[in-house]
């Protein structure tokens, strides 16, 4: 986020404050992780102010998306102190520091003695020095979000600068070179930290006039933007405050509001990061799968090498039988005449013990020979299946590497879920934000309205059963399954954690019996357990469950409940 874009965001927020007599009241103050604070300013449009102090990813913008709060146990102490200071306060001003990427929000509130005072929330968006500071009216530090060197109640000092900031206003016509090649190199060095596409825009516009006219026109548009342009660059989405005339083939979305452009920018970046994470997870799963197959093939190679010595066992057995009368026991085994050698010579064959019977030793070597022969035949069949699976793994890797856009990647991931072993697949994270996410996850499952209004959900496939039991069901939901028969998982949803009536359990048991391989029986035993008593077996197939505590009910296989569409 450069200084021009940050100035536009601050100016837009200040304009909305200027239209109000007493500013914006501060509602909820919450944290997202360790480096992000959100403020509910009770705006009519319902937007939250996001203040992120991540190194190299600081953010300042309004968003319609409701923030996902972190656990209070992991909340930074700064947030609790900020929440106390801003209780009953109103945002009355927002100012950007000149030539710095720092914003100061001023709140009219109350001190600890309930006397009116002013609080300042300083947001430094300066790379590794990014931070949020709670300051008094005299700009003394009360608390900071990230670790800092200093003591409370000391004067605030701006973070050190890593280098000279790009100063567009310091340029003069005499400074600018007249040739385009020199102009691009000069601006790239003089405006260090400025996006290189803005430099190219100045150079591109200079082709139709003088370099100074192009530079001045671009500078004016950056200082007073009329719209905000979200470009999908090859390296990722980026917002510019003017149209890029030299980039005509890139997808672009135009916004009238700076905060709407920023919210869209970060939403696309998060989506892009999620897609990249998904790709990395599946790439790791495919790599692990391929290496597992390669290790199995190496073990087959070793087994085949050992089994290739089977001919020696057969020869030793035959030589022991041929030399039963003339063999001589030695310290290393038994010495026989090797009739396979040319000319015949003495050969020492090892024994398990100095007193082992020679005929028994010959039988032992014949058994080893037969076992080695069977191993070679079995390994040949296993090798064929292993080579086919390894070829499929390599095809999956190439297909994933070739999935360029989101739609192709989604199709590829769907195929991978059917090919990659279940124990290697990335686990789907559990729902985190309530009913909206949960309802979306219920798609593809059978849903019934049971007695007394209880909702009963039935899986369709093994993967649906696994998702229903281990991702959607809550600890106090009831889980049912036909005893000793393959079938669907059935879950009675119990959000109120009450005792489920027997009529509801019986109705769900009838569904569990009906959607099982025992549906033709008159009566079926059905296991009932709370979800918290279930675990997924290690390296188990989809749908497999380990039950610690359960009880059994008998039910008729039938589908009598109304469906929920």
TrEMBL record:
Quote the cellular component terms of the Gene Ontology held in the record. RQC complex
- Give the transmembrane ranges: none
UniProt cross-references to Pfam families, sorted A to Z: NFACT-R_1 (PF05670), NFACT_N (PF05833)
Where is each NFACT RNA-binding domain found? 448-538
Q: What GO molecular function annotations does the UniProt record carry, in alphabetical order?
A: ribosomal large subunit binding; tRNA binding
The GO annotation for biological process reads: rescue of stalled ribosome
**Name by which UniProt lists this protein:** Putative RNA-binding protein
């Amino acid at each position: 986020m450069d200084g021009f874009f940050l100035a536009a965001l601050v100016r837009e927020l200040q304009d909305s404050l200027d239209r109000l007599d007493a500013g914006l009241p501060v509602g909820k103050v919450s944290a997202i992780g360790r480096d992000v604070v959100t403020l509910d300013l009770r705006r009519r449009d319902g937007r939250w102010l996001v203040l992120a102090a991540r190194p190299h990813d600081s953010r300042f913008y309004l968003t319609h998306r409701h923030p996902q709060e972190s656990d209070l146990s992991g909340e930074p102490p700064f947030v609790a102190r900020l929440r106390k200071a801003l209780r009953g306060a109103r945002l009355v001003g927002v100012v950007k520091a000149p030539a710095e990427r720092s914003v100061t929000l001023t709140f009219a509130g109350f001190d600890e003695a309930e006397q009116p005072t002013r609080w300042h929330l300083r947001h430094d968006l300066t790379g590794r020095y990014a931070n949020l500071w709670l300051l008094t009216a005299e700009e003394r530090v009360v608390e900071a979000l990230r670790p800092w060197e200093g003591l409370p109640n000391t004067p605030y000092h701006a973070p050190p600068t890593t280098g000279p900031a790009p100063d567009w206003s310091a340029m003069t016509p005499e400074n600018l070179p007249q040739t385009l090649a020199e102009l691009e190199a000069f601006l790239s060095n003089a405006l260090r930290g400025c996006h290189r596409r803005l430099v190219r825009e100045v150079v591109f516009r200079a082709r139709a006039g003088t370099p100074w006219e192009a530079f001045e026109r671009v500078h004016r548009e950056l200082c007073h933007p009329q719209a905000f342009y979200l470009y999908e660059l090859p390296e990722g989405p980026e917002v510019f405050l003017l149209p890029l005339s030299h980039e005509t083939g890139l997808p672009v979305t135009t916004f009238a509001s700076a905060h709407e452009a920023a919210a869209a920018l970060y939403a696309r970046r998060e989506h892009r990061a999620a897609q990249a994470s998904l790709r990395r997870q599946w790439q790791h799963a495919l790599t692990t799968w391929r290496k597992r197959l390669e290790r199995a093939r190496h073990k087959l190679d070793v087994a085949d090498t050992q089994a290739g010595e089977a001919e020696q066992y057969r020869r030793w057995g035959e030589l022991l039988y041929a030399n039963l009368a003339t063999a001589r026991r030695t310290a290393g085994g038994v010495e026989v005449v090797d009739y396979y050698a040319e000319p015949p010579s003495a050969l020492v064959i090892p024994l398990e013990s100095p007193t082992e019977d020679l005929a028994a030793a010959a039988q032992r070597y014949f058994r080893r020979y037969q076992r080695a022969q069977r191993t070679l035949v079995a390994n040949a069949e296993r090798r064929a299946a292993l080579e086919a699976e390894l070829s499929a793994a390599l095809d999956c890797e190439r297909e994933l590497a070739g999935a360029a856009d989101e739609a192709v990647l989604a199709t590829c991931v769907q195929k991978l879920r059917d090919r990659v072993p279940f124990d290697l697949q990335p686990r789907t994270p559990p729902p985190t934000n309530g009913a909206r996410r949960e309802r979306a996850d219920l798609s593809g499952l059978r849903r019934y309205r049971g007695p007394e209004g209880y909702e009963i959900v039935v899986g369709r496939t093994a993967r649906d059963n696994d998702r229903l039991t281990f991702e959607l069901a809550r600890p106090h939901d009831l889980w049912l399954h036909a005893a000793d028969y393959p079938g669907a998982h059935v879950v009675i949803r119990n959000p109120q954690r009450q005792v489920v009536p027997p009529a509801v359990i019986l109705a769900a048991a009838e569904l569990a019996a009906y959607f099982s391989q025992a549906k033709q029986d008159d009566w079926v035993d059905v296991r009932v357990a709370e979800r918290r008593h279930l675990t997924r077996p290690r390296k188990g197939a989809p749908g497999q469950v380990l039950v610690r505590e359960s009880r059994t009910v008998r039910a008729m296989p039938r589908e009598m409940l109304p469906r929920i569409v």
